[in-house]
Design goal:
It is built from 3 helices and 2 strands, in the order ααββα. By secondary structure, it is mainly alpha-helical. Strands 1-2 form a two-stranded antiparallel sheet. The chain is globular and about 35 Å long.
Length: about 80
């Protein structure tokens, strides 16, 4: 697990960079599909305190879900 705790914005950037590189397209397009990284209350979400609500086609949502799983494995928490 990484020692640096990212902000929601930084995780959004990480997700869009990963998706653009792995699935093609632009970071701007993926940012619109990923949406905002939302910080959740840690008391209610002890394994991870962030989520995204993806937009787009089923294939886009599947790619985003896979990217979220990869990123969350190394960065389960976001800071303020």
């Amino acid at each position: 697990m990484a020692t640096h705790i990212h902000t929601p914005h930084e995780l959004g950037e990480l997700l869009t960079t990963l998706l653009a590189g792995a699935a093609g397209g632009t970071k701007k397009d993926w940012a619109a599909k990923v949406g905002v990284v939302e910080k959740l209350p840690i008391a209610m979400n002890v394994k991870s305190n962030w989520q995204v609500t993806p937009n787009g086609r089923a294939a886009d949502k599947k790619a985003i879900g896979q990217a979220v799983d990869i990123v969350r494995a190394q960065h389960p928490y976001v800071a303020d």
